[in-house]
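Hypothesis: this fold can be encoded by more than one sequence.
Test: take the structure tokens below, design a sequence, compare later.
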């Protein structure tokens, strides 16, 4: 044994050097080998079915709380030093234990789903992250449907978005194979709504017919629902007349034949669609008196397909549809009154409290005009005018950039408030929308419903701000125009509106929500009254539904609030006057409402007092305009 010096070194003589070995890693490796050979130091066992895994409690309990709770709480496992692990395979258990001891794991396309599910169950974030990364990097034609389904089951928003985008961008190639035909109805309809706008409608049509053909006896009943996903107005004339109209399934469906006839006649006539004037309630035609300024478009009657040119008897229906044309156009100009209500931008990075101004854009009589209102004096400043006149459009603010879309068109333009150099045209929406509503969630813009081809729509589009690209996402449960779309609590909420003759219903009191990561709309508590031409905002995580016309055609001054925690509607203070076709936004700690049918004022709601106060006059009528914080 070496002799130890008795005298400590002086300060000048002191030397120091640190050494480090890898024995800690070697210890775990040796313990792992002992585990596999049922060594003497193993002090507990895990059972997967009849298979036994010896383990060292000190190792696995320190690694994961799942095992810590299992062997330290007053449970049977603590007494017996034995635990049954259910719901996973022997191979998966070995993979996880081997990772705990060695920090190494091999993920393959064969084991990734089992390992990920087990890691999620056992709360092992390392393995879960590795599996998610593997799936994210290996989404392909072979596994995209499985990855999407698994991501939904795990509520993995990032992976859902990755799979959705892959399916949308590769839609045509995916539908050229047979795998998609094995999807059930819900999954297939979800896939149809993911398709990229560059995918032709011919591909969509062939996908629908191919899916039905795969099991036609049980699937033909779903044709009418699936046919709605085909944008007939984008199909070439020859294809629409010679292929679609003559398809046996289509010919047997009166509803599909109606849609083909309507599309062909719209294309043939191409009636002009100028911005309609401001609509007074008294000017509503007698046939539409039930719902104030949102008249019902007469539904097309069933038609019989029987000619070689169109697949339908156009000669026998042209006169009838021509007579319908005028009220249909009038319905398009009047029916969808509250798209502006959805323009709230609670998700802006800048934050509502940072804004002291708001913009009012477009509307009847001022279709290209943009005005900035300064709070609290409410003086106005002129802003660059819109490139396209907007009536029944929607607008949002994302990162201090204002985006306005729709209003008798599918065009979108942007104004950067940081530079204020004028409006820039961006990628157009996939379809024209008037009286739509739009909002922002997680930096993406969502545009819903509205009127296209004289009919209220249920379709919804998502805009990628960075990629300047629109993508169809799952449609709403109801056709809606003159409604409101707001975003909060990680979800979209569609509120009220006008549906047309849908299941006997014209005006809507329904509310539905969508978590874009999951891709399914769900019903929320309905309002006590029908509201068409309303506005709505999210304020302090609650939804405020403001004004609109009820089922009797009466324009309301009432306001109701949905407590998103208790899921209950309750009344709040009344506005100073009834409003329909108005717009609203949240600035600071107040809700501002602008214009509407016959109104030329701006009023503000203070939640602290539960009172509305008129804060400014309008120089001109602002009906179906847009309001956004600035």
């Amino acid at each position: 044994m070496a002799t130890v010096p008795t005298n400590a070194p002086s300060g000048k003589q002191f030397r120091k050097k640190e050494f480090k070995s890898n024995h800690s890693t070697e210890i775990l490796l040796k313990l792992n080998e002992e585990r596999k050979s049922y060594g003497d130091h193993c002090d507990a066992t895990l059972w997967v079915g009849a298979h036994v895994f010896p383990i060292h409690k000190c190792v696995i309990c320190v690694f994961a709380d799942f095992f810590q709770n299992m062997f330290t709480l007053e449970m049977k496992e603590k007494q017996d030093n034995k635990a049954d692990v259910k719901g996973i395979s022997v191979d998966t258990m070995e993979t996880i234990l081997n990772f705990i001891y060695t920090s190494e794991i091999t993920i393959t396309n064969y084991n990734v789903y089992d390992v990920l599910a087990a890691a999620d169950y056992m709360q092992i974030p390392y393995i879960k992250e590795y599996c998610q990364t593997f799936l994210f990097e290996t989404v392909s034609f072979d596994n995209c449907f499985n990855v999407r389904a698994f991501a939904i089951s795990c509520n993995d928003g990032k992976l859902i978005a990755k799979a959705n985008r892959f399916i949308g961008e590769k839609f045509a190639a995916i539908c050229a194979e047979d795998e998609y035909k094995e999807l059930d109805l819900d999954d297939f309809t979800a896939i149809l709504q993911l398709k990229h706008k560059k995918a032709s409608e011919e591909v969509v049509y062939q996908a629908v017919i191919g899916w039905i053909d795969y099991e036609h006896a049980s699937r033909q009943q779903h044709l009418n629902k699936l046919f709605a996903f085909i944008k007939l107005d984008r199909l070439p004339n020859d294809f629409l007349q010679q292929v679609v109209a003559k398809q046996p399934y289509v010919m047997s469906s009166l509803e599909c034949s109606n849609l083909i006839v309507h599309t062909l006649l719209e294309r043939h006539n191409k009636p002009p669609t100028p911005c309609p004037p401001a609509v007074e309630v008294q000017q509503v035609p007698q046939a539409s008196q039930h719902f104030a300024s949102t008249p019902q478009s007469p539904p097309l009657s069933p038609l019989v397909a029987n000619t070689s040119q169109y697949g339908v008897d156009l000669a026998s229906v042209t006169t009838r549809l021509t007579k319908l044309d005028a009220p249909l156009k009038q319905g398009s100009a009047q029916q969808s009154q509250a798209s502006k209500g959805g323009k709230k931008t609670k998700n802006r990075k800048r934050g509502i409290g940072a804004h002291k101004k708001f913009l009012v854009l477009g509307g009847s009589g001022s279709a290209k005009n943009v005005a900035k209102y300064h709070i609290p004096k409410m003086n106005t400043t002129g802003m660059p005018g819109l490139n396209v006149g907007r009536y029944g459009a929607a607008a949002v603010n994302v990162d201090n950039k204002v985006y306005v879309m729709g209003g008798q068109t599918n065009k979108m333009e942007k104004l950067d408030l940081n530079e204020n150099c004028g409006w820039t045209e961006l990628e157009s929406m996939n379809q024209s929308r008037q009286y739509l509503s739009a909002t922002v969630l997680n930096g993406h813009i969502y545009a819903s419903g509205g009127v296209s081809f004289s009919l209220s729509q249920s379709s919804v589009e998502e805009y990628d701000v960075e990629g300047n690209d629109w993508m169809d996402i799952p449609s709403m449960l109801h056709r809606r125009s003159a409604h409101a779309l707001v975003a909060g609590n990680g979800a979209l909420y569609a509120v009220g509106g006008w549906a047309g003759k849908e299941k006997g219903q014209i005006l809507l009191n329904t509310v539905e929500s969508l978590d874009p990561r999951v891709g399914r709309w769900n019903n929320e508590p309905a309002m006590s009254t029908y509201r068409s031409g309303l506005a709505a905002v999210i304020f302090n995580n609650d939804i405020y539904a403001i004004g609109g016309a009820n089922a009797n055609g009466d324009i309301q001054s009432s306001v109701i609030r949905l407590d998103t925690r208790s899921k209950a509607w309750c009344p709040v203070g009344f506005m100073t006057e009834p409003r329909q076709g108005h717009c609203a936004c949240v600035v600071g700690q107040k809700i501002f409402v602008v214009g509407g049918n016959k109104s030329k004022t701006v009023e503000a709601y203070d939640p602290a007092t539960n009172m509305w106060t008129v804060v400014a006059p309008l120089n001109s009528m602002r009906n179906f305009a847009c309001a956004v914080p600035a």
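DSSP finds 18 helices and 29 strands in the chain. The radius of gyration is 31 Å.
Hypothesis status: open.
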